[in-house]
């Protein structure tokens, strides 16, 4: 696990993923546990209008809870070479308010700056770093570039749901563990 020396909660290298794989994996993670969600619809590249104009949103998730309460979540997927800055999260928050969505999510192949994570804390925005699955491998070796043993099975891709409580925290997301996304959707 090589960490970014300037922001050690982020990987040193961006995730090597094609745009199609990236979008498909995010779409699969959004197909969450539907035992508490009565209706879930996810669209890609949807145009939503607000008082500031029309926005093309990477994904829009709509679902119902409590027998009819409708929730809309806008989702942006960023493929940058450096961690996402607070200004991008601020812009997402503005879009969320403008189009009348209740929540927002941002996925990034390069992680997030601390200011972005801190800003999202009380804004109903989830920030998820999209990583190669083997980045989850940690060891206490004196060789920092140790390769995971072949008997360990890591997913091809995983996510780290970054959040601020009293300090920075992260929860792993993958196809077998979507609960951080489900919890965010329902909180």
From TrEMBL:
List, in alphabetical order, the Gene Ontology terms for molecular function in this entry.
Answer: DNA binding; endonuclease activity
Which GO terms are recorded in the biological process aspect for this UniProt protein? DNA restriction-modification system
Give the source's domain of life in one word: Bacteria
**Residues covered by the Restriction endonuclease type IV Mrr domain:** 17-129
Signal peptide residues are none
Pfam families listed in its UniProt record: Mrr_cat
InterPro entries documented for this protein = Restrct_endonuc-II-like, Restrct_endonuc_IV_Mrr, tRNA_endonuc-like_dom_sf
User: Which of UniProt's keywords are assigned here?
Assistant: Endonuclease, Hydrolase, Nuclease
Q: What is this protein called?
A: Restriction endonuclease
